[in-house]
Fold this protein.
Amino acid sequence: MKVGILEFRDNEFIRSVVAGLGDIQTEFLQSGQLPHPSPSPFRVIVDRVSFCDPFLRQLMRYWSLGGTYVLNNPFFTQIFDKLSELLVYDRLSIRHARTVLLPRMNRTEDVKEIVRQPDWGAIEGQVGFPCVLKPVDGYAWQDVFKVESLSALRSLYESFKETRTLIVQEFVKYESYYRAFCVGTKDVYIVRWTPQPFDMGEYALPGPDGQDGLRQIITEKTVALNAALGLDFNAVEWCVTPEGTPVVIDSYNDVPDVRREKLPPACYDWVVDRFCACIRSKLASGERNKTGSLLLGSEAGALPG
């Protein structure tokens, strides 16, 4: 049995993971076509690239159905976005920002009778100002704006309404901000983070030590979120209000950014160690990705043999 690596060879994190796997056979994945049938040569695949390529995403789903365990699950990563996550928060009793989904106005489609212009007065009353405008399927701070007024919000919406589906959210005032790395839906490492756009955010230690019960609350809620979202590896963003209430800001980072030069050394080493342990666990088990048991007729996620 061997582990497939779907990541660029010069990625330092994945090189650290490969080194940490020691005597386990690993192979960087390459494929030019996918004939059927095409059994997977891997028991486990570490997938950190397919999110940006439809061919690779189809390849991961196909091999997952055949029994390969893919980290992270290529089926669950297609289900959730920044709106559908809110349902998970509500069911887990996790505080989150008030949110409104804005309609996309693509002039090539005649849906004027169905899709109406936003009710800006109602939106202002629900989220207030300042607020945050961002794509519902956004990634890595792309097209994320802090908006101070209704006129600025409407102007930005006009700029993006034909090309992106947007959400507008309450801007949560906070005293501290954290990222909680979660591996294997059980192990959590919380690190302080200063959020900034354009990859300018900074990490620091310690985490939420010294605040009554805060570390335990964030840990427990992060584990519950990852289990509900079906992610074996994730980084959940939390802020803490002046009243001491943790509020989830972003919970779906299916390809967490793990860079030695950005993270505190103890955090980087912890993530590598736990991720290697997770891979070893999946390699030794008969576990399969969950793929939608109602469609496939199998709770384990594999097509009936």
